[in-house]
Amino acid sequence: MTMLQVVRAVAAQLGIAPGRCRHCLERQAETSLGLCNHCAGAFAPRTGGYCSRCGEVFALADEPPRLCSACLHRPPPFSATFLYGVYDGALQETIIQYKYHGRHSVERLLQGLLLQAYAGGRTRLAGPWPAHDCVVPMPLHPGRLRERGFNQSLELARPLAAAHRIPLLAQGLARSRATAPQAGFSRVQRQENVRDAFTVPRSALLAGQRVLLVDDVMTTGATAAAAAWACLQAGAARVDCCVLARA
Description:
The protein has helices spanning about 5-15, 35-40, 70-75, 90-100, 105-125, 140-150, 150-165, 185-195, 220-235, and strands at about 80-85, 135, 175, 200, 210-220, 240-245. By secondary structure, it is of the alpha/beta class.
């Protein structure tokens, strides 16, 4: 690695590359998200071809969002999913770098993408959509939180809640038990893994609330369903999901 590459790597970790693209650090930032035009193309949003309820991608991107057959027959406990893109390519790489490798310089980029996911989703999905009463980030088990050092879902949710003046309930949900990582599990195994894994603290006061549940990635929707079910059991009137990416 050359000295220039070392400097760029350190700048990327610390987020001290003013005027440079937040993703590649090579070119000048030219978009509102702080990306160069080249990287902006790699982060293009998914505008269609997915289920308006569970977010599953099942059609061509130029087709408008609509209900998939699974949601028509057995809908999940959440009512809609606002998403930015598919979990692959540059979006997947950036989420992994932020979540598992501590590249906090991309945090503002991902926060901006989540804001667009919410705004774009409310525009694209058939409405009308009710105003949300609170934003609830997907919680981490205390052991996982100590290991990672931060809850990525909470940090992603902060600007969204602030921009729309929606109360952020950082402790709106809690993990009642540790669960195994979902990677590699089948859909049924994922559902079993997170069954009864969430509780709502009494102080959260979700009764009658229209909840916006925020997470970084939705894979099969099993975790979101378990979390949404806990909110509904606590009296929430409705739960919608907002995620950066859908697998």
